[in-house]
User: What shape does this take?
Amino acid sequence: MHTGRKTGDGTFSLFYRDGWAYLCVNPPAESGKPVYPEEIENRMRILEVPKVRRRTLEEIIDAGEGVPVPLVEWPAGKHLAASFKVEIAEDEMTAWVTVYPPKKGGEPPTRGEIMRELQTAGVVHGIDEVAVGALLAEGQYRVPVAIAFGTPPTHGASRTIRYHFNTNRGKPYLEMEFGRINLKELNFIEHCREDDLLAELLAPVSPVDGTTVTGRVLPAESDTREVHLNAGANTRLSPDRTQLHAAADGNVRLDERGRVVVEPVVKVRNVNYETGNIYFDGSVIVEGHVADGFVVESGGDIQVGKGVGKARLKSARNILLKTGMNGNTEGELDCGGDLFARYLESCSVVCHGNALIEEAIMHSRLTVWKHCVLNGRRSEIIAGSLIVGGSLWCKKLGNFNEARTRVALGVPPEVLLDYRDAKHTLEAKQDELSAAEDNLEKLRRALREGHDDERVTQTVQQLEAAIPELAAELAKLRHSVPELREKLRASRDSMLVVEDTIFRGAVITFGNLEYHVPEKGARKTTLRPGERGLVESGFDIRNKPVLRFEEHKEAASA
Assistant: This one.
């Protein structure tokens, strides 16, 4: 306990420490007043400190060294001291200490006290000396402070592979929550040069045991799996098989079996009469345009820097159109992976992955196995038809002119197409049977009326044989069409998100469920299939629904 005077006077402090009362006297300056024994005795009475001889007090005052001196044993003063609470995490990897401040007459907590409390609680490892010092310096009272940390084990690891190229390029939506994609910066094709280092085996990691804050040993696990570099086409392993280099120039990627391959790349300025059609097993880069009437088929990726006209592009993997396509009703796109484009107009598209379009889909037919997302400023779909196996996200669906815009969602395209084909065939066969029966009746009437012509007789015989076959086919179709219709159950994970407006003229189905657009359209709408029908809710930009993309893993790591 400190007693102070005006500047220059002597001061003293009287406090409890480790079962004793301590006295510390600081002498006065030259013109200041000294500390008097009576002052100390008064303070001792208030704190109920046992009495001592006045001579003892005078000797400490005369010495005036400013150093705490044990004055008298004082066990009863313990209630004035700071108190501590030590907590240890269930996994014993962290320990906290809470310090409760001393009362008047108690010494501020010391490092030694904290260390003793930790040891008493069994905390013997990972004590953070910096945290202890900060706690004392800043007086962090009544707040648990993490003061000790266990050392986790370093589990042994077999050799791992470090790739020197991007193994997951072209899928920004995985990280960006399908935020706006800059197609100018997006590239599926990564060039490498012959002899470039493509991958290497890193050294294995030796296991190191860990320790909890209580000193308990955490055994480290070992990993004895063998890992190898998988060399694919146009790559070369070093003699010690720890480095993989390119054996040719081309596009480096992981193939479906996890092998590093370098595929040849065809790079042309434009596809036109100078190049002719392109049929290539590797990837194709077109820096400029693909002219009307030309074909590009690739066993890898296709990238086109500028516009695509009334052409046909087919890729076993991904297609990237950095501008877009105006197919004039005859343009075709067919990709085995994902499709990226700024816009699609008057074309037919088959996409076995996700279709991510910046601005617009107009007067086009799309069949998309996964999701279709429009994420630019316009993000509108006008006229045409879309079959989307997953979800559809846009800002506007249809337009003010109520252009017929058909959207089917949530059902695998092959299932829906099988049903539509069977239904169309059923209708065609029904018409064919009706026409055959009408013709047979007319010919029979002609025969009854005496038109005994060999050709009429022969035709009657042919129709009489064909009609039962048609009837049998119709019976099968009448049985199979309802069965196929039963399969049109939309996935509960599918949804339609329209950030702005659904216009009249839009026809929206989720399997067997159809959404009827109100007379004035619908604003800010989210649709999902529910147990008893479609569930409609609003769209809130601050609480957007989550659209989950599946990552197309090209291969599992070895």
User: Anything to note?
Assistant: Residues 1-6, 172-178, 551-558 have pLDDT under 50 and may be disordered. Residues 7 and 380 are 80 Å apart (CA to CA).
